[in-house]
Predict the structure.
Amino acid sequence: MEWKKLKQPNVGLLFNKSIYLESKIRNTASLSQNILELNINKKEPQFTPFYEVLYNQSPIEIQAVLPDSLPVSFKLFTTYPGLLVGSGYNHDTGNTVGDFKIGFFFDHTTGQAIIPGSSVKGVLHSFFNDENSFRFILEELHEAENDKGWHQLAQSLSEDDIKTLKDQLFGKMGKAGNVVFYDSVINPVASTAAKLYLSDFITPHQKDLLKNPKPLMFLKVAPNVAFDFRFSFMNSEPQPKISKEQIETIFKQIVLSKGLGAKTNVGYGQFATKAFVAIDESKSQKEEEGTSILEDIIPPNEEQIHLIQTGASFKGKIISEKKDNRIIEIELAGKKFFLKKKVKSFKGSKEPVLDADVQVTFLANYTNGTIPSCTPTVL
């Protein structure tokens, strides 16, 4: 199957099953003592061309899993190093080179990475299950939002109040809770990552500490991928002292504090309220090369991100002259951007002088918080 030609391939199907049915992979397989072994060329693993589909899938190419009619409770972004879900699933063909050694969880129908609602519920429930953890979250909200109301709420709730709230929200033996926990899914429009998936490695040490560890490759969701978290409340007021809006805020703070998925103790599965925009430390070098540099490091909004595409062209104006550089102001979706370009990089028959109108054409897509190179033409 030509996976690269598919408009929206089911990468979950590829990752877990179909890759092992491909002729190039199957022809190298041999069964020895009921163990599947693949005779793979170490320099050119046969897995590589198939897994390129994983590495090349960008958020802009996929569609949202859940319908828009289901309201989003809150949206969060993955942070570095990424998100790992489903690590407990088997994914290994024995003696292989180039294959992933750790499992991953995909939605069965769409093949997209999701965080199961049961996993979200489990993490949230653990904080409500412990009085001290629950009060800690309220105090975190008090500090983060500078809102004394959270501190007062923490003081007013008794241990019995917290237990009652927990049972009402999450349910108990013989009685369902008031909240429906949906799977958390990727928001393709809000995501600013260039690619959805990346590979990573873990190197577990063996008993012989002098022996080199064997790196295990695994798949992860890249940083800056947006996830929508959704909950439905059966009752508008789950508990007399706490509103539905407050419950959603507490849920959000728990996810921000605890994280989700595997390996959270070493940084995976952490979230942020905004996409991270890296400040390029090689800025001075890029200036010498004439590459466009974003002066305003405020992250673009969702609409702007999708406007900055290969070949996209916008009108702007030179608003400042600094030595042999020109500062160009352009407007994307109602918000101003500032680009710095070397004078020699301008095109057109006219000189790039102050207040001159220019046409700015981007040479690549917006990726990972980086504004790509562009060609300004004086009009």
